[in-house]
């Protein structure tokens, strides 16, 4: 029946401070993000649901500048763990689920980043991944000595490309089979199989090799979520997984086709890159229960938090309108047009006021939201997957662990029943579960060319 | 009987590549350092022995430049984990033992470092510690774009002092009781209890506050091992624990007295700083069994590795001597005189050749070595402790897990029998086990002074 012979992939989204009022929901442990045991439960729930990975988003700052003290005090973004250390600890508490976290190419050092990711990959026996971001947030810049906002977008992406080249080179600098462990002969390593990187570039000068050696996946998985031209270019050239935020299936299909085309243009297979649209899920036994639940979580968002999304994302000046009046027709504006169209359509379709629209938007973190029953939600996921709008989904959890539990308990079994989702992990590593091949060390390749009798 | 009413503290030293030929010993798992399960066993063995902490040393490079390929291939320094991620993972596998690891102030960013340490402290529920080092090794410099060797020693220590000030300020930037978690009122935090750091200094500009908030210990423990004037000054002002390498009790007593004096001069209590000399232990049922074991491990060190220690530490030009001849009388030279004197005395006392001296030195990583039975080893530890040469010891393990097991099985019970060591962990956090008070946030203190009715 299926035209596709691959299966849907799932990532469980986690980000302290996301769904910023989620902590207020009656079913939510308000300080869960700050509680390591809660984090273990979250990861194990995703693993129980056979998710490919948990994805830990991050920013190296609070969600607002300190001058916005009153607003800051309403958000849970101050809570939670640093993601590399959290993933390392969760690696010791799980066995199958992938552990992908965000680190920035704008403020990090490639040697540290390469080493920490390889180390998590070793601790987890091949389940680490890196969401590579370029950090456009001025609150982060202020924590790293960058004055007057952030670096220019193009500079960030040039630095990101060089950063990626250095990190992957460091991961390759000790070949897989370098370890001899010859006690008699006193040879720990084969000296032919350790390589300087000797990188000298515009932003970095890094000698190498990497202390720690190559990790189980060769390269931990690389995820990205860049939406700009530069972002799409880097993602299609270097990423294994791309996260995105698309609201209509046509937009998602266009993004999917564009990314796959770019991937092939870079000399890769289309299937080397997996596309995961963010998808917020509010499940109910019945449609009306699901809608009540969505309403309940939405109403936790005070105006000043909810309306930011309208003024920011949709560029609507709310001071000209009655907040309880119907969502107005918007003139076409520059930027985020798909998003704006999606929001208007969503408001009209559901007959929502401006305030209700803003609140619903906030509670689904601006991602598309599926409010419904097992059947309607799975129908939608199937449609997007079969229609080549998605290879998988980043599941957003508006009321956190409770949301994820709903997905694992109700959505996953129905996906399995329809033959759309795994019934057991296929492999041992994240790379194997995603159906991706393991990259050879770039130095092994070179050595094999130089002296074919060695390779 | 005891003049001291405190007890001996113990740290278990771990450093991939240390005792560089230890991997060749018949009782050693040659790739143990690279195996997470081995690392868990090491940490749990220390915990079984009620050690205060494991101490993970580190350098962000291999032990030799890549040009030294042949030598590199004999060393296990390429193996192992990045320490922050390893400590985070071990936190999830242990319950009591402290987890102290090295991170450098010369190449790291204070915001990342502060956040990772606070995160490990939260994951471990109060057991994290930071060995603050300034990284004088040119192999590391080459991985961070620093050309032509390292930065000047004094610059490194000025940067380290500012770095420490920023990190501790970030740890303080969200007060302990900032979390309100008021679901009804919609207040996650008390806005009065979050603070910008707004640091502007010679090396760093960091706005803060720290995402993640304050950690269980307030400040994770700070360890240092600086031996220079600048190093001693920074350590006595800012550290909780100082590691050192002293060979004679008189030298150790002088170092101990100097550090305690400096500590008091900085307005602290002498007991706020704990001094831990590195101590390598080779245990035997009998003295001759211990000596045979020391001989066995020493003979694993090939000349080119062993002799480096003689030419480096003692400044002896071996080309003028027969390696199998007796260790010569050395003229007094500049630098490391205590160490040189210790080595000469050790060689003479044990009637060792130059080669044997070099090999023994290498196998104990240049730290003092106690080769003996339970009685003689514990006598020595007691003498150093009672004589105010030490508050505790960093136990060096020449044949790694086997060495540590010997200490836990034989030395710890005898220390306990003599009333010199705990029989159960005293507290929940590393700080409590070390008998150190928990620092208040510097901002809480300020706020209390500004408005006494609030404090
Ligand atoms: C699902 C998803 C997750 C993201 N996670 C992060 C994150 O953890 N940290 C971050 O700084 N940016 C994150 N971003 C932002 C993207 O990395 C990217 O900067 C943004 O989509 C704008 O694209 P551009 O950088 O190409 O302009 C995320 C975006 C999406 C859609
Ligand atoms: C027991 C011990 C452990 C040490 N661990 C490290 C380490 O992990 N990384 C490092 O770069 N230096 C380490 N050092 C070196 C010291 O941090 C310090 O640089 C050295 O003792 C020289 O002192 P100075 O920096 O004041 O000149 C260690 C020293 C000792 C005695």
TrEMBL record, chains A, B:
Keywords: Flavoprotein, FMN, Monooxygenase, Oxidoreductase. FMN binds at residues 58, 102, 153, 157, 228. It comes from the Bacteria. Transmembrane segments: none annotated. One of its GO terms (molecular function) is oxidoreductase activity, acting on paired donors, with incorporation or reduction of molecular oxygen. Residues 27-384 form the Luciferase-like domain. SUPFAM superfamilies: Bacterial luciferase-like. Belongs to the NtaA/SnaA/DszA monooxygenase family. This is LLM class flavin-dependent oxidoreductase. It comes from Gluconacetobacter azotocaptans. The lineage of its organism: Bacteria, Pseudomonadati, Pseudomonadota, Alphaproteobacteria, Acetobacterales.
